[in-house]
Amino acid sequence: MFFVAGGTGISAETLGNLLLAQFPGLSFVRRKIPFITTVEHARTVLAQIDKAMTDTVTPIVFSTVSDEPIRQELQATKAAFIDLFGSHLDTVERVLHVNATHSAMALHGVGDTVRYEQRMKAIEFAMEHDDGASLRNLEQSDLILVAPSRCGKTPTSMYLALQHGLKVANYPLVPEDFETEALPRPLAGLADKCFGLLSTPARLSQVRGERRPGSTYATLAQCSFELRRAEAMYRAHRIPSINSAKMSVEEMAAVIMQSSRLPDLG
Length: 266
Fold this sequence. Notes:
2 domains
């Protein structure tokens, strides 16, 4: 599988992998080739793709190249070529009565300066407020993720900041927080901004065991206790929650945004 693009290749990889995920019984060799900005480079890439052809293997190419001459060059491949821009871009142009810029950097470049700056500020906020490192200006957050250790707070916070421009703080529940169902003092009055993460005891024990093997922290009993107490806290304060055990960061972010009715600011 080749993911080719005139920019970062993030979109080609994301959309291509979304399609490949529909074939769970198969394994794939993946290669991303970003920043194809000249016809000469496209010819080099074309040679690499066609070299991968065998009597039993036909490569599949997922492309988000928007430059027309480069697209035409790549489409000459003997492999299966899936143009993720192509006719879709033509349709949008026809409906809007405006020609597209065909800019490779339009999606993942700076583009809209205001939205880009919003994302950068959100990332700074998420980093400052990661794992309870700072309790300053929590009221300015769009969302506060609350969970026992190792339930996925940090990656979800960073994803929501980077992809959606949301200011997300995350707060780790520690042993003293499980003594009552009261919200931890720094979160008092902020329940409406909170969203809880849970897991399964087995999954949480496995993840913690990889970090601190043989510790009480990683035992099944400790994980079960913390998850029960966290769930009781969420229920007492009507804090929505999800079980992260079998969810990707992308899925978690989508569910959280929909449940909390958060806007996409990125």
